[in-house]
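A quick aside before the break. I want you to see a complete sequence-to-structure record at least once, exactly as it would be stored in a machine-readable document. Don't worry about memorizing anything.
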Amino acid sequence: MNNGTTHVAVQRWLQGGGIKPQTAAFVAEALSEKLRRKPTLSDLGFMEATTDAPTLGTGYAASLAEALTALDGIAQLNSDDALSDESLLPESEVNSAAFAWLVSRPDDLIGNSTATRRVGMKDVTAMRTVADTFTKLDFLYGGGHGHTTLRHYFQNEVLPLLNGNFSPPVGKALFGAAAETLQVLGWTAYDSGQHAIANRYLLSTLRLAQAADDRMLGACVLANLSHQANYLGQAPRAMQLARASVEGGKGGSTPRGMALFLAHEARALSTAQDHKGAARAMNEAERYFERADTVDDPEWISYMDEAELVGEFCHCFRDLKRGPEAVRFAERAVALTDPKYARTLGFVRMVLAQSQLLNGELEAAATTATQAVEAADALQSARFLRYVMTFQREISAHTGNPAVQRFNEQVRDAIARMGDE
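That is the input. The structure line, written in tokens, reads:
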């Protein structure tokens, strides 16, 4: 605290008198070490020193207390508060975070012995059940269906547990489960088009994965960040994040995990039109996947099956403008994808349509795209909608074709239904 703080000033604060915002921040910082978390100014009763905007944080938190404080601020944001895409974390901060994670060590997870809430393994099991439920919901209906509910759960149920009283073994499992849950929350934000918020959720997930000493989950988070960057057309960022994922995952990941990370590297290299690099990454991913069933995997990566791998490859061939291979892999992905992964099925059907268009098969492409839109009627996914709109632009020169007209009518009907909901 500053030198101007006396017992008289403290008495004035206790009686409800004013306090300077800077001084209030010093008090909160001083108490954070004792509490093992950084209390907000409103927690301390300094309402006049608070602001309306939640603390969002921008980078990779050095301490776990800082990470939880920033995360609480992000979780308070409603969809109406969504940051613009211009608020994505700067590339320098993302690269710094990836490097910090690569060279990091796990935190000493010692629970708050003064907390009234005693956390046990049953709490961890319940959290993982919730994460699994929302993962299934996300795949079946898109991120728009479950994001708000999961955000509320994370803010009101998960974060309090992280500040609870737990033993070191429970703490490691607890932070691992929280990271898994937060990864789903970040993904639903991404799928809903809330890219700046998703960016921060995923970076916070990386920090929780460090705390839990889960290298495979951390590498998966970097792969997800690469996926988002690639989607937003940021190929250099996507390549760096994917390579950090692959390097960081080595030694601590299963073959299935390594196949996933390399598939994302292949996606980024394909976007950058690096044909040789993309072929190398796809070949390595395939070699790892051949050994996927030789070891047990965590539940959160169970979606990474043959259909998912083939689906990633058809995206690569589409982006590399290799029409015949793109059609072959997309057809196989459509055939292999389980209907419970409805959003994935929608994606690969749209990639098949784009690949057919690459081959000059206009009517087949329009028919495939129409089927994709019809089958994805229940999806609330900004990403799927963009696939559809991109294809619609690609065929805009052929609006006189009957198959194209049927597709455009189907899109208009689907958008009208969305407006009625």
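Two observations worth writing down. The radius of gyration is 24 Å. Residues 47-55 have pLDDT under 50 and may be disordered. We'll return to this after the break.
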